[in-house]
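G., the chain you wanted modeled:
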Amino acid sequence: LAVPAVSLAQPKRGAPQEEIVLPGNIQAFIDAPIYARTNGYLKRWYVDIGGRIKAGQLLAEIDTPEVDQQLQQARAELATAKANDDLANITAARYENLLKTDSVAQQDVDNAVGNGRAKKAMVDSAADNVKRLEQLQSFEKVYAPFDGVLTVRNTDIGQLIGSGSGSGAKELFHVAAIHTLRVYINVPQIYSPAAVPGVQASLTLPQFPGRRFPGKLVRTAEAIDQASRTLLVEVDVANPAGEILPGAYAEVHLKLPSVTSTVVIPVTSLIFRSEGLRVGVVRNGHAIMVPITLGRDFGTEVEVVSGLDGSEKVITNPPDSLVDGQEVRSATSAGGA
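Predicted structure as tokens:
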């Protein structure tokens, strides 16, 4: 009767996969501000906010009278350069024919030929200037760079438009591709070995209660952020119907494979001693104090990441007087006796 009776429990194996829930920020797969590349006044626009657009679709037209006049001037200068080039070539040919009869000096022929080459270079320069202005004139029409949705329109008819994206210039439109969305989340360092490309994920949003949107982890930053000790990962989610809007908040459910084999035991099995955390197991009718390392706390149960392999019988509700090597008997056998 002096041998204490103890209750025993078999540890449970931890799940091969575990699901973690992390907050995420939804972003468009491609997001681009649209600026003008020429100066002028907005002549008209064709798409308003929320409009679905295709790559190459005309968004707006800009009236650029200064560029148009510069192009006409450049074309006139090109015509003048071509006329001078033709005259220089004719003169050079005449001097070369006169040289055959020794009617002119060699120096005069060289001057004529050199002048012809210079006029040809001036023609090339004028032609390049015309091409430059023609390209600048083509920027009068603003086209969509990719398929998506127009999220911002910052201009209207008659407004003065400045080229570029520097000071004085204003963004005309903002285009976002939402057929696929990027969701960036920060995975804690402890889960980083399991957060690899190919891991399945799902999104839940407050505006869609009870629904889950499937996704997949596609890439990681391959570096732990020193400030937060987390790994930045990207989850791509298909959005063919456009239900999910970029900029929304979502909870990302990641199904990560367990990095190490774990077991789960009742929280009442834990023994807190001065030498550290222990669990009592029964071997050959004696209690053995086994040091363990805990993982997650599930409330009534705890996860053990090291110290137990799952084949032991752990003592639940161990008495405070229990010591290492003490003889014990199971409560089941004691009740039977």
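The radius of gyration is 40 Å.

Shout if anything looks off.
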